[in-house]
């Protein structure tokens, strides 16, 4: 049944990724790493949006990904997989680094790609 549904255009997934990135930044605004880790609701909501960024990235066609190697597509998708499956646990330092460094950078790159 789902095979008859039209494919969603890839640009909508870029919009989703931007929206999820903005949520991650909003949820963690004003927090330090310790505050982030100890606030369960914020922690869980943030991880969920990081997962959704990776899920949306899987929907971007290979030719678009290849045309934009400045965006670390494989790393984004791998991060999603690690978070969802909790392979070897979740490293809080790595997650915090992603939030503080990589998400703002990714958001900027996606904004450029959007246009």
Describe the structure.
With 115 residues, the chain is an all-alpha fold. It is built from 6 helices and no strands. It has helices at 10-28, 33-38, 40-58, 62-67, 73-85, 92-114. Helix 1 (10-28) packs antiparallel against helix 3, helix 1 packs across helix 6 and helix 3 crosses helix 5 (73-85). The longest helix is centred in the last third of the chain and has 23 residues, at 92-114. The chain is globular. The N and C termini lie far apart (33 Å). The mean pLDDT is 92.
Average pLDDT figure? 92
Strand content: under 5%
Report the strand count. 0
Largest sheet: none
Residue share in helices?
Answer: over 70%
Could you give the distance between the termini? 33 Å
**Class inferred from helices and paired strands:** mainly alpha
Roughly how many Å is the radius of gyration? 15 Å
Topology as a string of helices (H) and strands (E): HHHHHH
Shape: globular
Regions with pLDDT < 50 over 5+ consecutive residues?
none
Helix segment count? 6
